[in-house]
Amino acid sequence: MRRCHDEWRVTRAGQPTHHKVEQAIKCLASHGVEFNTLTVVSQSNMLHPQRVYAYLKSIGSRYMQFIPLVERAANKDGMLAHPQDEQTAVTPWSVDGLQFGKFLNAIFDIWIREDIGDIGIQLFEQTLAAWCGLPPQVCVFAPVCGSAFAMEMNGDVYNCDHFVYPQYKLGNINDTPLRQMNNSAQNQQFGLDKSRTMAQECHTCPWQFACYGGCPKHRFLPSACGPMKQNYLCAGYQCFFSHTAPMMKAMKTLYVNNLSPAEIRSVFFK
């Protein structure tokens, strides 16, 4: 995993940082401090889910997030592409949409047999929550975008860290109270637009309850059913949701009977 990490995570001088991260983790562990790992899934590691998961377990990670890298190429002026600009290509180092789902499936199959109850993986737990009818804790899979603002060092506040563009600026924290920005018509409309701009395919998708079209930033693929764009990761999400459905259904049954979903290990994988 050192090579995958150091390919992208370097110092300002271009030097590798993997060893520094491991040193920091050992320091935290020596003081009994829990930590969460955020793993970016890209072209570099998307074909190695088992190795990635084994490595994360080996360094003591017990709380994991897997974040798909979906980056759009900058235009000729060097400006980042607007999220809904369908004319801009995805960068070569971005994860393939379907492969992201396969990556998740491979890790899920290990986790459900060996680690559920001991290791928390955000996307898996969020999916189970959706099956159980619980409120989404991750804005990506909520029907309405949450107020997960982004604030620049000068105090400028934007609707979301995926939408730091002039048209999504809500104000400046030095001039406008955060509560006022949160309650503003612009912010309310931004949240509601998540459902309003879902592709037509989403409305008939069996996994809408768990996905709600995903993050609007990733909706830039043309739809065959209308003007609203499809999510770049749609194929991967469908692959993941369909693959995990039998186990999710079984864990839901345990949950509604006041049993821990982790009991599935003793029920199915003795």
UniProtKB/TrEMBL annotation:
Domain 4Fe4S-binding SPASM, residue spans: 147-206
Root EC class: oxidoreductase
Transmembrane segments: none
Keywords (A to Z) from UniProt: 4Fe-4S, Iron, Iron-sulfur, Metal-binding, Oxidoreductase
Short name of one Pfam family: SPASM
Span of the signal peptide: none
Gene3D superfamilies, per database record: Aldolase class I
InterPro entries, A to Z: 4Fe4S-binding_SPASM_dom, Aldolase_TIM, rSAM_sf, SPASM_anSME, Sulphatase_maturase_rSAM
Needed cofactors: [4Fe-4S] cluster
Single Gene Ontology MF annotation: oxidoreductase activity
This enzyme's EC code(s): 1.1.99.-
Name of the featured protein: Putative arylsulfatase regulator
Organism name: Salmonella enterica I
Gene: chuR
